[in-house]
Task: inverse folding
């Protein structure tokens, strides 16, 4: 019995040393695997980088200030403004507003006055907003005016894009359009390209 107790006294410290050693040195015994673009190890995990999407950038791309017939006619006749999303992600513009040069002359963008019925603009896509008998918003044909795009009511929204034109620059059934499409300066007297690339 005494021999057994002496044996336990010898084995117990030895087991304790081995256990503690394995705990504190375990980080040095690593099994490393690579799965796809992620690296895993017993000590660390490094995820692959997730690219940050480029924010949407919606601009006024083309507008018809002097349509054939009544400017306030029901869509698809009458005045219209085309937006383009030059960004890399889609943008919903429901609840955004168009204004002329008068802050109280507003045209809220919604599914009832856009081509196709959806206010979501795909990356690189277009959206045409029609005046559609609105009694406030109006792009003047004979005097200077402006077209302004806000992401909410003018009192609380942010100005996203705008363009002002001079008197004498509006021709019936011709548009002001960005040339080149989406990024260039506005050019008067263009052939309408509703919902498509300006050429």
Result:
């Amino acid at each position: 019995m005494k021999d057994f107790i002496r044996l336990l006294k010898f084995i117990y410290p030895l087991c304790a040393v081995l256990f503690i050693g394995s705990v504190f040195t375990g980080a040095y015994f690593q099994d490393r695997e690579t799965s796809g673009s992620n690296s895993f190890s017993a000590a660390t995990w490094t995820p692959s980088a997730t690219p940050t999407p480029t924010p949407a950038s919606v601009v006024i791309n083309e507008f018809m200030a002097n349509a054939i017939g009544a400017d306030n006619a029901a869509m698809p006749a009458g005045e219209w403004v085309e937006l383009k999303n030059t960004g890399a992600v889609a943008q919903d513009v429901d609840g955004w507003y168009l204004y002329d040069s008068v802050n109280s002359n507003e045209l809220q963008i919604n599914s009832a006055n856009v081509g196709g019925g959806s206010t979501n603009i795909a990356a690189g896509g277009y959206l045409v907003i029609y005046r559609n008998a609105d009694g406030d918003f109006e792009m003047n044909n004979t005097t200077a005016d402006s077209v302004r795009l806000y992401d909410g009511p003018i009192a609380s929204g942010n100005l996203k894009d705008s363009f002002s034109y001079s008197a004498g620059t509006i021709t019936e059934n011709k548009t002001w359009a960005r040339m080149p499409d989406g990024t260039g300066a506005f050019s008067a007297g263009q052939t309408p390209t509703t919902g498509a690339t300006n050429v």
Summary: The first helix runs from residue 2 to 25. DSSP finds one helix and 14 strands in the chain.
